[in-house]
UniProtKB/TrEMBL annotation:
<dbReference type="Pfam" id="PF04854">
    <property type="entry name" value="DUF624"/>
</dbReference>
<keyword id="KW-0812">Transmembrane</keyword>
<feature type="transmembrane region" description="Helical">
    <location>
        <begin position="72"/>
        <end position="93"/>
    </location>
</feature>
<keyword id="KW-1133">Transmembrane helix</keyword>
<feature type="transmembrane region" description="Helical">
    <location>
        <begin position="169"/>
        <end position="186"/>
    </location>
</feature>
<feature type="transmembrane region" description="Helical">
    <location>
        <begin position="140"/>
        <end position="163"/>
    </location>
</feature>
<feature type="transmembrane region" description="Helical">
    <location>
        <begin position="105"/>
        <end position="128"/>
    </location>
</feature>
<feature type="transmembrane region" description="Helical">
    <location>
        <begin position="12"/>
        <end position="35"/>
    </location>
</feature>
<protein>
    <recommendedName>
        <fullName>DUF624 domain-containing protein</fullName>
    </recommendedName>
</protein>
<dbReference type="InterPro" id="IPR006938">
    <property type="entry name" value="DUF624"/>
</dbReference>
<keyword id="KW-0472">Membrane</keyword>
Length: 199
């Protein structure tokens, strides 16, 4: 019994390492970060259905190809939004003017929405056949409509990153672990609300 449990634990750890490795390799051109992360969430979705297993390569590559165009365009759009937001923050912090605190407060709010939407975009891509406009709309609605879930996911991501800084070995499973925990958290949403994204 103990040997069996140890074997299963090692299989799960190996599966997470392999998925994380695939994700890193397919992210290497940088412009493929969104397609690669979409493929990783697709594997996690299958894990949630049938359990964690080592058979991830075929699913990952298949989903990478199938969702490449849409997730690539989403990645470009999201990079532009993030870049504009970062530039705005940079100038607002370094400039002095009347009402600066109000502008910074607004930018902080937009940054929170940006991060919140970032959490939901790819799980929506792998679960529903929607246009880019519909994906962004529903990611926005989820991010503000389910604040507890949004904040929980942000805390999960921040916690894992901090742990990885303290325990470097975690880097081997950081991406796959974040994807698994975030997807698990999101999947607990009210089914009616989650299904609404497909309407």
């Amino acid at each position: 019994m103990i040997f069996y449990q140890l074997q299963k634990s090692l299989e799960v750890i190996t599966a997470f390492i392999f998925l994380n490795l695939l994700w890193v390799i397919f992210c290497l051109p940088l412009v493929t970060i969104f397609p690669s992360t979409t493929a990783m969430f697709s594997v996690v979705r299958e894990w949630k259905k049938s359990g964690v297993n080592f058979n991830v390569g075929r699913i990952f590559i298949l989903e990478f190809k199938q969702n490449f165009k849409q997730s690539f365009i989403l990645g470009i759009i999201w990079f532009i939004f993030g870049f504009i937001l970062a530039i705005d923050f940079y100038y607002m912090i370094n400039l002095s003017f009347f009402g600066k605190s109000v502008v910074l407060a607004l930018l902080t709010f937009f940054a929170f929405i940006y991060l919140g939407m970032s959490i939901f975009i790819l799980p929506i891509v792998v679960n529903f056949k929607l246009s880019i406009k519909e994906i962004l709309k529903n990611a926005f609605l989820f991010s503000i409509g389910r604040l507890v879930t949004t904040i929980s996911c942000l805390i999960i991501i921040a916690s894992i990153v901090i742990i990885a800084l303290l325990i470097p070995l975690i880097i081997w499973v950081i991406g796959s672990t974040i994807a698994f925990l975030v997807y698990t958290t999101i999947s607990k949403l009210n089914k009616d609300l989650w299904t609404a994204a497909n309407n």
